[in-house]
Amino acid sequence: MERLLIEGGHRLEGAVQIVGAKNAALPQLAAALLSPEPLTLTNLPDVADVRSMMTLLEHYGATVLARSGAVTVDAAAVVNREAPYDIVRRMRATILVLGPLLARFGHARVSQPGGCAIGARPVDLHLKALSALGTTIALDGGSIDARAPDGLRGGRILFGSPSVGATETALMAAVLARGETEIMNAAREPEVADLCACLVAMGAEIEGAGTHRILVQGGRALRKARHEILPDRVEAGTYAVAAAITGGQLELTGARLEHLAAVGEALEAAGVRIWPTDRGLMVSRPGRLKGVDITTEPYPGFSTDLQAQFMALMTIADGASMIRETVFENRFMHVPELSRLGANITLQGASAMVRGGAVLRGAPVMATDLRASVSLVLAGLAAQGETVVNRVYHLDRGYECLDKKLVRCGARIQRLRD
Ligand code: UD1
Fold this sequence. Notes:
alpha+beta, UDP-n-acetylglucosamine1-carboxyvinyl-transferase, Chain, 2 domains, 4-stranded mixed β-sheet, 15 helices, binds uridine-diphosphate-N-acetylglucosamine
């Protein structure tokens, strides 16, 4: 097992290349299963979750060819069989193959997924969407068995609350369903809109991407396509916090201000300066930080995927910050670990009260999930002395070369192997 040894207290300065979004890459790789024609994706991040998804596609008999920054998935010879639990348990996003396989073959069987331990994370909304398109679903032996022997037909899907993954499942199923599908209360995350753009490049007809109501005219034959994955707003937000927590300045090349949405606003309110440049975004923290309250919400609200990082920043701000988590019920696993570094945080239900002004001091800490683990790295950058972050495989699931990118900007980090 690997761990990171961080010597804190070094100001970051320089440029960081923001890669393609993991959360856009995963559904788009799954979308390649929809068609026998090849799909080429560019700007894919080289992270463990993306590699797991490629392994899963290969398990189905797809060929996955990586060449000069592009990955081509050819799913012509796909064999429809159940995914091995060993891959599925690693990553919840494996549920994303259910819709495409079902839509193409009229039958699919997928193990109920695992992934980050940040809450119950049911898949009922995915199944509800597929049912609305004419699927019969049975749950047995830990697997989901979905059947639509005469093919899917368009329908109306109304989500009680917006779900990124379920909207993506609905979209991928709807493009091959006969007739029109209306998806209401759809998730508006940029990654959902990017999936729509990818599906349109493959020949699908979709209106309303990025809004609450998406209309799909389904049943068209899909064709060979090429699509560039949008930049990772969570990676960009994470490096923005890295600049802020060390009182430094970083240029995030490829990042887009509009994708940060409420996160950009909260950072500015906390005393961080963010402005667009020709190449992306510049982030700088010239003076003192101040406590800001946030509530996580679906996009364009404050992203739950940046809550842990923002909390790390708030530990050293002047004043208090109330952080409310409304998307996942159990997403505060970083709190006891941040406290080990000297943070002053009180948890009450879905809220965390951060009393700022802490002097963080290095200590050994344990990564528990992807975003929690990066918050510990960020706190370690600001802490006096040495911090050891254990179980960094969580980090490697979603960040490409995090330690190397930080070191290039002045951080002192070593990756240690047992
Ligand atoms: C995606 C992102 C994840 C991000 C999350 C919220 C990917 C691969 N992952 O996860 O990084 O934190 O969006 O922005 O894109 N829910 C149900 N039933 C369902 C599906 C979801 O109750 O069938 C609930 C979840 O438990 C959660 C909420 O809906 O409370 C939102 O989850 P969802 O948007 O589906 O997140 P994911 O797609 O899993």
